[in-house]
Amino acid sequence: MDTNTILVSSTLCTSFLIFQLLFHFVSSWFSAKVSPGFNNLSFEKKIEWNSRVVSTCHSLLVGILGLYIFFFDEAIIADPLWGQSSLATMNIATASGYLISDLLILILYWKVIGDKCYIIHHCTALYAYFFVMKDGVLVYVANFRLLAELSSPFVNQRWFFETLKYSKFSKANVINGILMTVVFFIVRIVAIPPLYGFMLAVYGTEPYRRLGCLLQYSWIFTCIVLDVMNVMWMIKISKGCIKVISLMRQEKANNRLQNGKVD
């Protein structure tokens, strides 16, 4: 095996094993230490809790590393289609190991946390990352897509607050909700036009033609699928945000009425 194959396979397997250990053992132990409410949760809630803890760990790892690669990895910045980077490849393999681990967890606990959207998302991403890891192409683009993971910790934290019965109007919940909406919008929606603009810019160039039809169509297809899902999730988040703002205004008006401050 060549060096790249060894790097990819070892990183992917290590990632898979670590995330499995986090889900089955570490998360429950750690969560019980830092959040007394964890022990009072039902079995079903604990399964989803552990799944989201692992998701947060993965997102912070690959998202922050992806951000570093996006700004400072000169080899793939100079050649986004064919540039090589061991660090970027490791980041993609780490994300792939997590996706396989999470797919297994989703299947094992389908009645508790099964979601067809996540299956489609994970399989689409894995299909794209397979070509990146196998052929060493579009490494920069794949890492750019991983920046979307920076929104996941806020989405998961919202679920933790809700599960622990935090008020929707609590300061922590409101701040997290604002950050979740803003970060999700930036890394998943604002990032869409530059990506497709880049596709158009390289279309027909010699490096693009070297990709071959399969890679060209796969690149476009997987991006469309993932971005349609991102838009759907953004709409859902926006509706939730509008609902909370409306409820906050309503509660504020009710408090003013009770205090006799309304003319």
TrEMBL record:
UniProt cross-references to PANTHER family, sorted A to Z: CT120 PROTEIN, TLC DOMAIN-CONTAINING PROTEIN 4
Protein keywords: Membrane, Transmembrane, Transmembrane helix
Any one GO BP annotation for this protein: lipid homeostasis
Domain TLC: 44-246
Compartments where located: Membrane
The protein, known as: TLC domain containing 4
Keyword Ribosomal protein applies: no
GO cellular component: endoplasmic reticulum; membrane
TM region(s), chain numbering: 6-32, 53-72, 92-110, 174-196, 216-235
Topology in the lipid bilayer: Multi-pass membrane protein
Pfam families: TRAM_LAG1_CLN8
Protein encoded by which gene: TLCD4
